Amino acid sequence: MIFRIGDFSRLCRVTVRTLRYYDEIGLLSPARVDQFTGYRYYSVDQLPKLNRIAMLKGIGLSLDDINRLLHNGMPVDHIRQLLQVKQTEIQERLNQDNGRLRQVERWLDKINKEGVMPTDMYIQRKDVPRLRVISKRETGTYEYTPNKLREELLQQINRPENQACVRVTGPVMMLCHDEEYKEKDADIEMAVPISGEISINEPLIKLKILPRCRVISAIYKGPYDASDNAYAQIFEYAEGHNLKLTTPLRELYLNSAEEIPEDELLTEIQCPFHELKS
After folding, report:
1. CB 123 within 8 A of CB 173
2. Cis peptide before 146, with omega less than 30 degrees from 0?
3. Of 11, 35, 58, at which residue does a domain stop?
4. pLDDT in tens, 102-129
5. Does some domain include residue 74?
6. Which of 17, 103, 238, 257 has its CA 20 to 30 A from that of 74?
C-alpha cells in the first residue's frame, strides 16, 4: 500500500517536515517520487524502519549514528560501545531523578506532619555526572544576562534543522564563574543539556562537556532573586564540614517562571567543593 507524504505522516505520527529531513539526510527516503509533481510516496513496508528510528532516537542516539546503524555501516563492537554509553547516561539520569524524588518525598512527609512548607532545605553532597551541553558565556548583570542567554540557546535548539534531531535532556542552568558577587560585569554562562547532533550558526554558542564534579546541593523554593538564605545555609554547611567551595556555582531551574507563580519556582543550587586538610 502506497501513501502520499501527508497521509503517511498522519499514519506514523511523524511530521511532514521530519520526513522530508530524513529523506534529505538519507535516513528514510520515499518509496517513490513522482517525476512530474515531485510528490513523495511512502510504503506501508517502511513503517518498521521508521519505528526503529523512533526507538533509537528515543534512547538518545544521534541521527548520524542511527543512519550508520540501520545501513550496516557500523561494526558490532561500535554498536555495543554506543549502547553501553547510552546505558550509563540513562542510569545517571535515573540516579539524579531518584535523588530528587527522595527530596520531594521528604518535603511531603514534613508537610503532612506539620502542615507547612519546610523552611530548612535538605542539603546533601552528591556526584554530578558529566553533561553534554550547548552554552554561551558573557559578562553582564544577573537581572538581564541570564534570560538573554537562555533565549539565545533555546532559539538555537529550535531552529528547523535541529528540531528533528536535538533533545533537551535536563533543566536549563546558570554557571557563575566569579569568586564573588558582582553587580556589573559578572561572568555568567547559561547552558542547556542536550543529546543528538546540533547545527550552530552563532560563533559564541559552544557545544561542550561539563566535567563530573562533587557538589553541595540544595533545592530552593521561591523567587530567583530571593535565594540569599539558601546560599547562606550552603556556606554554613560547608564551613561546618570543613569544605572549601569552588567555582563555577550552578543554578538548575527545575520549573519555569512562564508557567507558575514566583513562589512555586524550584531551583537546585549546586556548589562544587573540595575537602580541606585537617
Report:
1. no
2. no
3. 58
4. 767 766 776 777 665 555 567 889 999 9
5. no
6. 17
